[in-house]
Amino acid sequence: MAVGTDDVYKLDLNEIIAFPDSAHVPVLPPQPGESWIILAEIIQDVSAFRPVFLTRDKIGSEFIVAFYTDNPMGDVEAMKCRVGHVMCIRNGMRHRFFDGQSGYRIEDPTTTFMLPCSMAQLQQINSRLRQINDDGEMGKCIACKKQAELRCKKCQVRYCGQSCQAKDWKDGGHRKECAIIATLRLWNRTDWG
Q1: 62 and 29 Cβ atoms separated by less than 8 Å
Q2: Residue 12 domain-assigned?
Q3: Are residues 34 and 91 in the same domain?
Q4: Which of 63, 80, 87, 97 could pair with 103 in a Cys bridge, judged by C-beta atoms 3.0 to 4.6 Å apart?
Q5: What is the 3-state secondary structure (H, E, C) of 61-113?
Q6: How many domains would you assign to the chain?
Q7: Closest listed residue to residue 91, CA positions, set 192, 182, 179
Q8: Do 114 and 26 fall within a single domain?
């Protein structure tokens, strides 16, 4: 997978090495310099004695994610695990649970984080960023399309001035997408090995 830059956006969430689906999850732990992210939208909270979520990957396969951390309830609350949001599991390895179900057993909370959007929204935002790149507009204001030097501090989206940034934050939905865009842009610059 080609690595992008701050000004070149190439991220492909359908790339199976960096973002494997259920059919392409590696069976061996990552080698030095190698990594991947399992993307799983939470579709149901099925917790009983510990936090357990039914999730769906980008090809529609369903599996469970169970938390076996030192403080599972606190970790899940801190991560804001919510139905309809995307769970991101770094270097996830499939696990067969005692009841025969397959999924992911989270033992280290630092390997998992949440994106506050659905899988469809994540794909849509990624496609929009790729389109902006393909149209040669990465150096332009996201709101008015004029050349721009100012950037959002968190996600690096460009603005020509404070008025466009304030308007986009309020009316354009940037408030809801900023953290998602920041993560996508980080992944865009990542060499997945």
Answers
A1: no
A2: no
A3: yes
A4: 63
A5: CEEEEEECCCCHHHHHHHHCCCCCCEEEEECCCCEECCCCCEEEEECCHHHEE
A6: 2
A7: 192
A8: yes
Q: What is the pLDDT of residues 74-119, one digit of tens each?
A: 999 999 999 999 999 999 999 999 888 899 999 999 999 999 999 9
How do residues 26-63 score in pLDDT, each as one tens digit?
A: 989 899 989 999 999 999 999 999 999 999 999 999 99
Residue 125 sits in the same domain as residue 54 = no
For the entire predicted model, the pTM comes to 0.92
Contact 112, 42 (CB under 8 A): no
CA gap 58, 95 in Å, rounded: 19
Q: For the chain, how long is the longest CA-to-CA vector?
A: 58
Radius of gyration of the chain (CA): 18
